[in-house]
# Entry
Amino acid sequence: MYSEKLMDHFTNPRNVGEIPEADGVGEEGNPTCGDVMKITIKVENGRIADAKFRTFGCGAAIAVSSMVTEMVKGKTLEEAMSITKEAVADALGGLPPQKMHCSNLGADALRLAIEDYKKKGAAK
Amino acid sequence: MKFVEGIKADVTADIVYMMCPMHLLKLEEMMKTLEAGQVLQIMTDYDGALTDIPEWCEKTGNEFLGVEEAPDFYKFFIRKKGR
Amino acid sequence: MGARYFDYMATNPLRPEVLEAMMPFFKERFGNPLSLYELGQNAKTALEEARSRVAQLVGAKPQEIIFTSSGAEANNFAIRGLASAQAKKGRHIIVSKMEHHSVLNPARALEKEGFAVTYLPVDKHGLVDPGALESAITRETSLVSVIHASPEVGTIEPVRELAAIARKNGVLFHTDAVASAGYLPIDVEALGVDAVSISAHEFYGPKGAGALYLKGGTRILPLIYGGIQENGRRAGTENIPAIAGMGKAAELTRAELPERAGKLTQLRDRLISGVLEKIENVHLTGPAIGQGAEQRLPGHASFCVEFIEGEAMLLMLAAKGIYAASGSACSSKALKASPVLLSMGVSAQLAQGSIVFSLGMENTVEDIEYALGEFPAVVRRLREISPYAGGWGKVKETDQCIPKN
# Structure
């Protein structure tokens, strides 16, 4: 059902955890429904220097979170914002149709984290 | 078709909703268990029985007493032939 | 290392004796039971022998057994066939919220056709309250269906008591015994039921064979129209190899039932107490063990683990060679949490952590110890990843769960 790549990111997830005093925090989903992803980012010189996640959810949700945090590292905020659910799914070697919403959740949580960073910046 | 009312049967077979040709198979099977002169009642919802059962009686020499209509099925009465 | 199978509610392996009983009917004894020559009559004999054996398993007469292709077909047949046959009497049926989809969905289909359906609530252990049944029955009620035992939470329903209420009110009673037939003695007379569904692959028989017990003299509308097979009630050339296998499996089950129940109860109790002891924030779903009257299926251990999700648990366990099941939304193809868990009052987020271990005769004490060794580590690992490891916090309950694609 899942690709080898996805299973690798599920069994050995990268970037698990939470960045203390993160520059941006994004949380998406509801445990009542299924998956919840919480992504924290560190921004330096307009680029994402670090990203970590915690996820409540299925194997696909965990792998998506792991992959999203890998993909954004080193990217500018604009590049990171343009990461689509399809790009995440492709990077994992594809997702079964009923799991596509997991990659959507990952892209959304990331966007929320970036927006949170921008909001905080504006407030300063 | 001969319609009747109030015939008392000695033996009853309820094959309502069982598919064709259960009405003939059951008829043969049940008749073997009857004694001469006894009456068998067969309950079925199958319309084809209206021709099949009288025909069978004629062919086998058993007496077809008639049919009674119930709200969603028929009751056929057959008297087993004497020796 | 071979896999350790803890998913007997999904299916059972075939017993070698059963396979042996089936083989001739794939090969030289391939005849059709309706054919008049010897080859056909041999098949007919095998069919009727199997019918007797299956009848004996449930304490019925052979002519009260109708073979089907599966437990699901038997359930569909009972619900649609009995309700339709009695539509003149009334168009109201009652089912419990513990039912399998193969009972619930035909009930819903009848609803669309104008029948009224009452879904009986259950308590936190999944038990149907006989009082609730009593008050749900109306003059229009023609059929009640309550599952014998739940494959999801192991609850054994008070079928004898429920059936007595139905009978007192002149209402037919069907029970889905697919999950219980390999574990509990079933006696249709003692239970006082009119119809029972069973499935061969749930008691070491083959897939593709099920049966409906239907009390003599009960009218049922066919699902499959055609010829005179199964007394004109279910058309189609009989699956003789599978039916012969089901007969053999029924015979073995009847003989071995006490031994099986004894062994599986012991293994189950070891597993349940081990999990509750070794893992924090885990809840047994379904009735507790070791409390006088047994309300839980032998071999059935089901839990909800807090703060993590079932499918992820299944994948990690599978990587350790442990095969189990879950009723979580993510592990279901429909992405919906188990309605059974929700109807027992389990919160939607807790239901996500559903996991079910169902044991069988191939399991050993060593298997249980292995699972007890690996399972806590899997839970620990997933909790490290989960944002809720410290607790649920305030979770917004919502029933608006439409996955965005």
The domain at 4-123 of chain A is CATH 3.90.1010.10 (Sufe protein. Chain: A). The CA atoms of residues 10 and 59 of chain A lie 6 Å apart.
